[in-house]
Amino acid sequence: MIGSNGAKPLSDLPAGSEGVIRALLGGREFRSRVANLGFTAGASVKVMQNYGHGPMLVAIRGTLVALGRHEAAKVLVSADARREGP
Amino acid sequence: MMDCHDGSASAAQVAGARTIALIGQPNVGKSTVFNMITGLNQHVGNWPGKTVEKKTGVFRGQNGTVLNIVDLPGTYSLTANSEEERIARDFLIHERPDVAIAVVNAAALERNLYLVAELLALGQPLVLGLNMLDVAGQHGIRVEPHVLQAALGIPVVPIIASKNQGVRELVEAAAAVAERPGDWRPVRPAIRPEHEPVLAAVRALIAGHVPRPYPEDWVALKLLEGDAEITAMMEAALPAEAWLRLRGLLREHEDAYLDIAGGRYEWIGRMVRAAMTQPRTGAVTLTERIDRVATHPLAGLLLLLLILGLAFWLTYTVATPIAAWLSTQVLAALDALAAAALGGTSAWLFGLVSDGLIHGVGTVFAFLPILVVFFAVLGALEDIGYLARGAYVMDRFMHLMGLHGKSFMPLFLGFGCNVPAVLGSRIIEEPRGRWLTILLAPLVPCTARLAVLAFLAPAFFSTGPTIVSLGLVGLNLIVLAVAGIAVNRLAFRGEQSAFIMELPLYHVPNLRTVGLYVWNNTLSFVRKAGTLILLASMAVWALSSFPGPGIQASVLAAFGRLLMPLGRLMGLDDWRLIVALLTSFFAKENTIATLGILFNLDAESPDLATAVAAVLTAPARLAFLAVVMLFIPCLATTATIRQETRSWRWTAAALGLTLALSLLAGILIYQVGTALSAGRI
């Protein structure tokens, strides 16, 4: 289900780009934590800082969130800012 | 001490008064609201059996209204993902506050209303404090309180907590709901239509079996969300057959909880659409402009070092002179008082009071100004919103040790003094990271140890004392890193704690919030660690005085002689050096004072260092300095570790770790050094 529609890890998105969250990977607790923070399918996210190594900064639902690289890799996004149909 | 306890008990709660719980996500200005409502009429303690801070207070209105206020820990949701969230949710369910005030940040309304949606699902009577409207305005976000009020069906009061605007009206609105709960008719958050059937099925299965006081609808929702605690509770409460059917149903809908979170955000979106206008991104805000520097990998690092340098400069120019004045003037006065009061009585009683009790008071006093400065800096940085940036910048380095960025600030404070380092670890919410930070903090060489090093190194190594000193500081940091990696691997099986952290918008710090932060933290140090320091101080005095006369003929000296075989492994073939190490537990700078007494030389004179150097070979000198630098944390730090972890086992672990590491380093340095100088390697 993932990848077929062009979803890729949030950590791959360069600074300044926007994406739409498609799915969350990882353990239940991690997914629940980030989902509560607003990382849910369909939410748009903007990468504020990404140097390709170390943690990164994203803007989501009106707040700035710092994510470790490992954590960002578990958030799958489609780079297309428009929501895709079913 | 007694006065403190009596005072705090009355400030904590008033019997019979209604209770208001303050709840909100982190970074919404909730502590400022709490401070504005209660002022100094507050008490800070811990939740029973937890290391999480519990703040309670009393509101006294002009018309005689008295309300108990409980400040719940900052929490993003009511899912039991963290200790804070569990505490907040258990309080709401079991203590049933008459009304809750949800503080939300207007600049991040959507995310903040997530918690509100959860509170409404729980059925908790609620009013909304819409805070930071000014900050939102600066970012071009406009929120209409009355539209939001109409959409949610609950009172919405606009406030600017930092300027104390609207806070009284907010409390009045809450009190009105508490008076007439029947009038309170909120809009219940809807879940997605496709989830209705499965939610109904879960509700039917658990009907009549949900333990009091849990609301059935809410339990059904949490089961569908996969909440581990609620699931375990229902497994115990349901008959076996019903549980099996429920488990099957939940397994079928295992991923429902992500949809529920998503559905909640959709519901919020519908609620806020009319109430909020948000500019399309494009305008560069103040926060973004500051962050170009503050979160930059290089510039941010320099800024962090600059800020920390400033903190130390403040400590040395403001706190250290005051500490010195306190410990000489106040102690002299107390000593004179004791001499006058106990003049006719036995010498040992005077010794106990003067060298034990008053010296202990002196230790507490000596720490106070330093702590006040550190807490003021830490509190201000947190209130401004900078602390999270510092953590973000340092994350890549701290990661190597299984820690994340938030551990950097407390550990760095350790260079000044290990006590605020241990206390500062409170900013790390997640217990594993906090405990590992506390365990490692004593390995940061504090000012007192650096002073001992600075005193001895020139006489010990006439050529290149600076290089030796820097090398030893480096050794401490390497040992710290290696210990961090090893403990993380062994005790925590290399699990990395997930690094997800909100960076709040910058804002002007609130004097009252920072002031109360300093006051509460300092008070808590004096009350808890202070008591332990006084007791231990008297015990150490007794050990170093009996049977006497003098420390030379004390239990401590006998113990030092007993440890001679161990000392010889490090080349310390003199019991006096071992006793000096033992008394460094009292306070690190005591190493020099003890050596002064034992070598019968003035502790100020450089002759002392030369005399000590004379009894040691070159490798033994290096070994001795290494042991001093890595040795067990001082009494005050140990007491603080116990206070913060509330665990004697972790306190013992911190002592054991440093003891083992220091002895290991001493033995290795001496043995390898001796072999090298003898040309055997």
Layout of helices and strands, plus pairs?
The complex is a heterodimer of chains A (86) and B (681).
Chain A: E1 7-9, E2 18-24, H1 28-36, E3 44-49, E4 56-60, E5 63-67, H2 69-73, E6 75-78
Antiparallel strand pairs in A: 1-6, 2-3, 2-6, 3-4, 4-5
Chain B: H1 2-12, E1 18-24, H2 30-38, E2 42-46, E3 53-60, E4 66-71, H3 83-95, E5 99-105, H4 109-122, E6 126-131, H5 133-138, E7 142-143, H6 145-152, E8 156-158, H7 167-179, H8 196-206, H9 216-224, H10 228-237, H11 240-252, H12 256-273, E9 276-277, H13 286-294, H14 299-342, H15 347-384, H16 387-398, H17 408-413, H18 418-424, H19 431-440, H20 447-460, H21 465-491, E10 500-503, H22 511-545, H23 555-562, H24 564-569, H25 575-583, H26 590-598, H27 606-614, H28 618-630, H29 635-645, H30 648-677
Helix pairs in contact in B: 4-12, 8-9, 8-11, 13-14, 14-15, 15-22, 18-29, 19-30, 20-21, 20-27, 20-28, 21-28, 22-29, 23-25, 25-26, 28-30, 29-30
Question: Which segments of chain A are poorly predicted (pLDDT under 50) over 5 or more consecutive residues?
Answer: 81-86
Q: What structural class do the secondary elements of chain A suggest?
A: alpha+beta
Give start-end ranges of low-pLDDT stretches of chain B.
1-11
Helicity of chain B, in percent?
55-70%
Number of E-state strands of chain A? 6
Looking at how many chains there are and whether they match, the oligomeric state comes to: heterodimer
Give the N-terminus to C-terminus distance of chain A in angstroms.
12 Å
Indicate the mean pLDDT of chain B. 85
What's the helix count of chain B? 30
Strand content of chain A: 25-35%
| Overall number of strands of chain B | 10
Gyration radius from CA atoms of chain A, angstroms:
12 Å
Order of helices and strands of chain A: EEHEEEHE
Strand content of chain B: 5-15%
What percent of the residues of chain A sit in helical stretches (DSSP H or I)? Answer: 10-25%
The pLDDT mean of chain A sits at 84
- Rg value of chain B: 29 Å
